[in-house]
Amino acid sequence: MATTVHMSEAELARDLHAALAKVQQGLEIVIEQNHQPVAILKPSKPIGRPISEVLADLESRNSPAIMDDDFAHDIEEGIKANRQPWNPASWE
Known about the structure:
Blueprint: E1 4-8, H1 9-14, H2 16-24, E2 28-33, E3 36-41, H3 51-60, H4 69-82
Parallel strand pairs: 1-2
Antiparallel strand pairs: 2-3
C-alpha cells in the first residue's frame, strides 16, 4: 500500500516538480482545499504484463514458443521506442 502525503492546493502550486517526484517514488498525494480532499495524485499503473509473466504463462501451458535472441532484441527495441517523449505537432 502506498504512503499518503497531504498537500494544500497552494503547496502543490508552489512546487509541482517536488510533488511529482514524490509520486514517482510511489507516494500518493491527497490535495486539499480548505482542509478538504479534492484530488489524489498517485503513480500510474504499468500498461501490459511484464515479459517474465508472459514467459511463465507460456511455460505453464507447455507452449513450444521460445525467446530467441532476435525476439529479445525486438522486445527491447519496442520498450525503448515507447519510452520516447511524446512530441505532438504544434497547433500553430
